[in-house]
Specification:
The protein has helices at residues 3-39, 44-59, 62-77, 85-111, 115-123, 128-158, 170-181, 185-212. The chain is mainly α. It has a single domain (3-212), classed as MetI-like fold (Orthogonal Bundle). Helix 1 packs antiparallel against helix 7, helix 3 packs across helix 4 (85-111) and helix 4 (85-111) packs across helix 6 (128-158). The longest helix is centred in the N-terminal third of the chain and has 37 residues, at 3-39. The radius of gyration is 21 Å and the shape is flat.
Length: 216
């Protein structure tokens, strides 16, 4: 089997890997922001619940969380697990996991904004929502790009954990090809795929960081 044939065999898995990546990134960034605001809430009950959630998600393996999301509906509610639910469980598990990490990144960025910014906005007549959207968030985004970039690169590599639920992404197809062809070439092709993918992510965030560093 030639490299071209191997790439064709892995192409369907590459599509699934890209889907897992982009869906997870978008949903977890949105959920993470909401979770960070709850975590910073003055209502102690909500803040404590968010803190516990984040602690659990960051303190347990993603692979275990995927298994819980997949088998949970059956053991808790007695629901029948379908084949189509495998990918959905992966997307849900990844989004819930990465939302916890992004929540802490958002929290650190929001906490780094000086209190004087809020006071100045209040004097200028800005509402709390206007202050957050127009003054706080632009500063937060600039501050959190490096840690978000690191988590995003980790996400690219973590997509391989989808094989836990037998989702046919790149890593699962690679293992099958290696077993079928008795060749290490599929590993090399898969490695190049992940490397190039991560390289593109790194370049994107590097350019984004430079573009937003207008204060320099």
């Amino acid at each position: 089997m030639t490299i071209t044939d191997i790439i064709k065999e892995l192409s369907s898995g590459m599509g699934i890997t890209l889907e897992i990546f982009f869906v997870t990134l978008i949903t977890s960034l949105i959920l993470g922001l909401g979770l960070s605001l709850v975590r910073m809430s003055k209502v102690k009950v909500f803040s404590m619940l968010a803190r516990i959630y984040i602690s659990i998600m960051r303190g347990t393996p993603l692979m275990l969380q995927l298994l819980v999301v997949y088998f949970g509906p059956y053991f808790i509610f007695g629901m029948q697990i379908t084949q189509s639910y495998r990918l959905k469980a992966v997307l849900i598990g990844f989004a819930l996991n990465y939302a916890a990490y992004f929540a802490e990144i958002y929290r650190s960025g929001i906490s780094a904004v000086p209190d004087g910014q809020y006071e100045a906005a209040r004097l200028l007549g800005y509402s709390r929502s206007q202050t957050f959207i127009h003054i706080v968030m632009p500063q937060v985004i600039k501050r959190i790009i490096p840690p978000v970039a690191n988590e995003t690169i980790t996400l690219v590599k973590d997509t391989s954990l989808a094989f836990t639920l037998s989702v046919t992404e790149v890593f699962k197809l690679t293992k099958e090809l290696v077993a079928a062809e008795s060749s290490w070439v599929p590993f090399i092709v898969a490695g190049l795929f992940y490397y190039v993918f991560n390289l593109l992510v790194a370049v994107f965030f590097d350019r984004l960081e430079k573009k937003l560093s207008y204060y320099r």
